[in-house]
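Forwarding the complex inputs:
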Amino acid sequence: MLVILPILASIFLLILTSRLNPVARAKFDAPVRMAALLLSLGMFTLATLMFLGQIGGVDWNNITFNTFEFQESYVWIEQLGITWTVGVDGLSFPMVWLTTLLLPIAIVATWNEKSGATYFPLMLMLGGALIGVFVALDMFMFYVFWELTLIPMFFMILKWGGKDRKYASQKFFIYTFTASVIMLLGLLTMYFLMDTQTFNMQDMIVQAKGENANGVWLGLEVQKVLFIMLMLGFLVKLPAAPFHTWLPDAHVQAPTGGSMMLAGVMLKMGAYGMFRLPISLFPHALQEFQFIIMMIGLVSLVWGAIVCLGQTNLKKMVAYSSVSHMGVILLGIASMQPLGWAAALFMMFAHGIISPMLFAVCGAFKHHYHSMEIGAMRGMARHSPWLATSMMFGWMASLGLPLLAGFVAELMLMVAYWYEYGWWIIFPGLVLAITAAYYLWSMQRTIFEGGEETQPPKSLHGEPVPDIDNPEKLAMLLLAAFTILFGIMPWIFLDMMDMWTRSAMQFLGLGGD
Amino acid sequence: MAGGIIEYAIFIVLLPMLIFPVILFLGHIFNGNQTWVKSAKEGGLVALPIMVASFILSMLVIVEFIGNNLGEHHIGTWLSFGWIESGSTIEANAFNVGIYIDHVTVMLLFVASFLCMLINIFSIGYMNTDPVNDNRNHRFYAEFVLFCSGMLGMVLADSFLWLFIFWELMGLCSYLLIGFYYHKPSAAYAAKKAFLTTRVGDVFLVIGLVILWNLFGSLDYAVVFDSANIAKVDPGQLQIALGMMFIGAVGKSAQFPLHVWLPDAMEGPTPVSALIHAATMVNAGLYLVARMFPLFGAESMHGELVDLAFIIATIGGITAVMAAAIAFVQDDLKKVLAYSTMSQLAYIFTGLGAALWLANSYDWQEAYIDGKKNYDHVIVVVAFGAALFHLFNHAMAKGMLFMASGSVIHEMHHAHHDLHHHHDDHGDDHGDDHHDDHHDDHHDDFDPQSMSNMGGLASKMPITATAMLVGSASIMGLPLIGGFWSKEGIIANAWRVALEDPRFFLPASCVLIGAAMTGFYMSRMWLKTFAGKPKSEVAENVHEHTPWIPIPLVTLTFVTLSSVILAGMMFTKWVATPESEYVFFGKMGMIEGLIYEFEHVFVNPDMFFFVLTYIAIFIGAVVGPGLAMALYGGALSDGEKAKPWMQPIINLSSRVNKKRGFDNSAWANSGLSNALKERLYFDKWYDAAMLKLVAGFANVSAAFDRKVVDGTIKTIESTSQKLSTQIRRLTTGSARDYIMMAALGVLVIYLLLGVMI
Amino acid sequence: MIDPAWVSVLSAILFTIGLWGAFTRKNAIIVLMCLELILNAANLQFVAAAIQHGDASGWVYAIFAIAIAASEVAIGLAIFLAMYGQHETISLDDVNLLKN
Amino acid sequence: MAAIGGMSAEDLKLLAPELTVFVGLLLIMIVPNLGNGTFRIPGTSIRLPWFLGGTRYKFVSSPRLPGLLAVLTMAVALFQVVAYLINSNGLDGDVVSSNSGIEIFKINMFSRIFEAIFFAALLLAAIASLDRLPIGPQKSDDIDVLFNNRRQADFYILMLTSALGMSVVALAQDMFVLFVGLELASFSTYVLVAFHKETRAGSEGGAKYFIVGSVASAVGLYGLSMLYLWAGSLQFEVLAVKWADDGGSALSMMALGFVLVGFAFKISAVPFHFAAPDAYSGANSPVAGVLATASKAMGMLGLMRVLLIVTIPEASGGSAIWIGLLGVLAAITMTWGNIAALGSENPKRMLAYSSVAHAGYMLAALTAIGAWNWGLAEDAEGAMDVVVAALLFHMFVLVFFKLGAFLVLGVLEMEGGASRLSSLAGLGKREPLLAVGMFLFMISLAGVPPMAGFLSKLLVIMGIVEVATGTGSLSSIGDAHWVWWLALLMVLNSAISMFYYLRISVVMYFHEPEEGREGPLASGKSIRVAIALCAIGTVAFGLVGGELVEICRDAAQSLR
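Prediction (whole assembly, four chains):
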């Protein structure tokens, strides 16, 4: 329902409007935008009601590993055993909810985007595809939605992007596509190596568990190869060093709404996929690669942060900070503790709320000052207090200030990480400081300074300096509110994540003795 | 679990936190509205009742505690999570939230809530006439209340985790408030520096907490301080954990080598300097170390943690001397106070270090052994108590000093403004146009904070001068005033440890020398500001006018002076005693209390300590001020007369200056002096390291990322493009070649088939 | 009667000459002739094989192949004519507008 | 029922689609020539109207008529074929044999599905060419030149003959019959490629295609003669038996090699592909589309006949003898094609190289079939069916998106050429729907879900992997059959191909149109209908390809 509706609607809207000539299409911008907003709000309401138990009456905090709620299954392509199977659990539901939350916010934040009649349907399609990835329980369906997310994003970058959008959109597409086809081959190989061949993830996991009980399923060597192939797809999506270079380009060029969705949810697909497939299926391989995953995570974390420090482009800096934060997720996985996993899951969620705010700020910055350079605009606090406040808030949330969403994840991670790796913790610790350094450095040159009489940047050509407009304010306020909400009351979703990780650990026979 | 008032203790924290957005949004809505500016003082009067309420609530809690000994109040579980694999000691799997009240909490709770309230009053006087921020002061009050909430929360927290959470909240507010004058590059720089430097410490604090969690399975005080739990913990690991946490404290309390941010932090408005960078936030580090006391004092840790205690004391000793030395040459009133703060905090660290050493080495747990008084117990209690008492005294005195300095600066500024106003022809005082012109005034060379522009203010600002005098005396440890009661205890205990552990000679000597240095620079500051003749036109026209500023000054003057009462109430012993039977208004009366104090500090049975104590008093109260008088003393202008309690001091200084005055230009031009003026080059080196090393490395990394990591991909792409051109070149266009290729293909096919067979 | 093997050898020689000529000669007509050589090599082989196996279908194949060859030549000449009309050459090397 | 030659009326019924094409062919020849022409009885002056020649009737002189007839014919034939595919449930086909018992045609699902591919491709190409046949890149004002219906008639006659030839290839049970069909189809396509003889490119492309193609088929014929020499018959059945007996002899191997060359040219496998890009860029777009789909499928069909019926070993016999050869060819072909396409500036040549790459994928699948009973997979025959079905599916859906892509270029050709990438520039603004269609075709070619191209590639890879993993118990991935690495190469190649497919999209949406080409394109209704059909097929078979997969599976089973 949540999946198919936005996609169909977007296709409908796209077809409806594409028949018109450009002038007439421009008239449709407002109604289409409104329709998109209403639809996305409807989705959000639905997801929230599901969460509150108004629909379905689910006890979210007691969903164990590999059991799913709202499960539905229809035959899709019978001949290949492909089904349309959806369901949510403690792993996927927070992401689904997050997607439905971000969708209206992103729409609001980019309320005045040009060519809205095309833009907003694309946004809806993106949202639908993302939800599809998260709820899919059929491997084929998963992959279809996985790739489907690329298409609207590709167009969003291509049509609404910055100067180098051509290069960035292609790079984005090809990079992630390459990784995912390798993943696909891994999936298919696994499919044929199973005793009972099925595309249903749930059955696959059960089967893997059953087989693992009598030794290592498929044999360790094969598990390792398949694990690598699957992980490769997800690592690129995440992205982890050294596969991260598509991200800054994509982000810098993407329009604000695209960036918000990209950073907020699309990156999480990588982490989500890791948990859903390779980790759930190949616990032995995970154990084998534990240290390597940790090192990849660490390199992403440290490298991303250091590179941030050397950036002069605001959005690029934020993009690299995403790389850095995604490293945390890998560290969480590698900690092999339910706490570390829960930290990774919560990091996904928290970063999903915080980073859209960062990109909304960057977008507003670009929108209003026509420049992305740090230092082009100083003394924002004087003439654009709203933007300055939002920026300050977002930056602070991102650098892990307590009582904001990011902190909880970082804290839990550090605990689990120390337990497993001891003094390696120096590096994440170092990154905490570096993160603060680059954020503060950028704030010093944007929010602060500027002298008593602020010089508007040259890129404004002497126009008056505007503060952010009302839709942007609304979007920022909402994001900030949720950041605080989940900073103070992380248990809202943490409990179900925790239940999931704990039962997963038990189910997979990891960590527990 | 005690009920009653503690149930409401959470509101001490929540009230300011909830008022924060209110002020922010009200301010945003009513920005520029005259009612808002004049009547509500741009939020100052909104914040005040809240702070008062918070203070009253705090007092209720304190009184209740003193009466009933409340203990802790568990509010609930914040986070719970799975933890399958567990070490021997880990059982818990949650982060809890709650209120924890003991002697130390109560002491600091009073300090925090009391000063927050007073400084709120002070700010109303100070900020609302602050011309730089017309109609923007609501931002100040909003951040101010948020800070108060952070501070109070940190004090009341029942676990190291929540201590850290509020600690960071304070850091944020400190950052925001230092950068209050955001348009000044120096303020922006200072704000960044403050946050970053403390962040470095915080990183270690987090690591320390994480290690601690892994040792105890919880960060709750109740669990961590339980001696049964402590007994299960590996001392080496514990020492590392506590050491890491101590680095956090070093950052927050501006100790060597993370001290560089504090002087720059004076870029913030003066109330901020008073509250955050003198009285409360910088005490957080001390509080954290004081919180470690039960761990050091536990029997199972006996003798295991002395190295850490030594490190704490040494860091303190080094900072004490270093900061005091730098304070010698500072010309900026607030900078002198900043270094003084640093130095005094260092004293407390040394005191805590010594106390922790003692607690860790002595068998002190029982007050009575076989019915006989356990002197080890007494020593430890006095040592710990002295450090905490000094914390209290210093907070009060320094808060007051900063407010007094604020008063001076404020009036200097006004006087300067008035003077210039006469020269200019601007009629409208409030318009925005004027606002801009106003800034031009600031661009001239006049610096209202420079002591070279002051002098002779004792008669013009009597309240301020008095407060400053009392505060200085308290810091210097003049007999019977404020710090006197605590400082000697610190010095004595440092030496006590030094006699047993030779390593302690370093910090012990440092604090002893520091006493003399304190006397010198505090006197220098007071004399340069208030004694002698005015050194600038502006200084001649200064007078006090707003009523809001004197209120806190007078109040604090009395509090400082009343230390003697606290001493009489055996504050030292009470605050340091973990057992509950020592209640505040003890069995003994006031005089007995004082006797107790004397008995344990001033009339030491050991001859060494006896002499030492009086040497310390002597150099602190006589040598240091004497030198200062000789250099900077002087009578007021003719016809000016200070209040009777200050006039003798001015006269004395004038006489000393005439008689014993000497030329110190040789010293003033020496390399050491220059080095001190450059703050011993720490800032320079740190900045250089940041710019050259870190930034350089970061730029290289960014380039590497672009050229090599991304470049690899691009090379693959361009190579394949080239390859594509090469391959397509084979399609020559000539059908002959195509046929030839096909013929070659036939050969290849046979070759391959041949291989297969 | 000649050993059928010799016929095969002959046809192999014809085939080789044809193929060799096809990519060494520039003139399109000569290439066409070489093509005929290859086809004839096949025909020869068909017939020889038919005799060897005593199977009539080989003859049929050969006759069909001759027909095919004839139409091939017809089409080829037509196309070359068109090519000549446009390029004014029938040298295969010189007709290389389309390449890469 | 009376038998005509060796064929009974029953046989005629079986051959209904082919006969339809034949009738249609005759009609196109006759109908446009109807007129008031008379026939004078010799020696008399009596003129009998015989309706041929003379002044043509108005309705028959419509330039659209041949095209409509061809479309109708093809549609009816396609309908019959599809009806057969849907209704048929028997796996055994019907054999049409000569009086002497030589099997000539065999009608089963396998052959019919190929016919469906051929007819579908030709039908779409015919629809696309309906409006008018562009004479070349330059616009001509001479309406007679453009709409001369005789010329139209020639064009559609050639199309129908190639359809006829292709269906013969599909049905043939005798290598030589197959060859004759192949030649019939080839000759038609040679002429179709050179149809624009008024242009330099057209004539050149045709000439090259002809010369290289005929050499290749001549070599193939020589191979057939050797095969005949070896076996004494060219009947598939006989050959298969003989192969099982004496497969490894030098003669048979040589014959096999030559025969492969003939077909390899048709599917444009490296190194026999060189003429293909030239031919594609010389021919007009619908024809190029037919070359890339139907003609390629025909070559593939020949390969499958030879390799799967004749030379596949029995279940116990291990791998086929040629898998090494084919594996190498597949690897080289797909990589070569993709890399060559990377830098190509001409969209038609780019599509040609992409078609080479697709040939590589198909060869990879064939290689996997050669290894079908490797490791004695539990259901080896089932595994083989899967791969064959995947191949069939791939070729079937390829018609839609490959041809669709060519047709979009065809629309641009009407405007004046599509030989530069920049001619696509700004299509997103000029013709949003057309651009969306092109985008769909591109990502389908690249294999992005949920397009048909994804499903087909997925099936192919699945087939390969299934064969490679054998019984399902491997101790390491190195133990899998090496065709697994072909699958890996295939997915990597898909990734490479993404570069140039996306480049087209980027050009369409990002670049400003060339000067003088800003506005919407010439209408060309019929070609748009064809493109729409292609787009619908591309999406529909991607989303709900199940039925087609089922049919392909049945067809694959009927091959056995």
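Confidence is low (pLDDT under 50) at residues 84-90, 424-443 of chain B.
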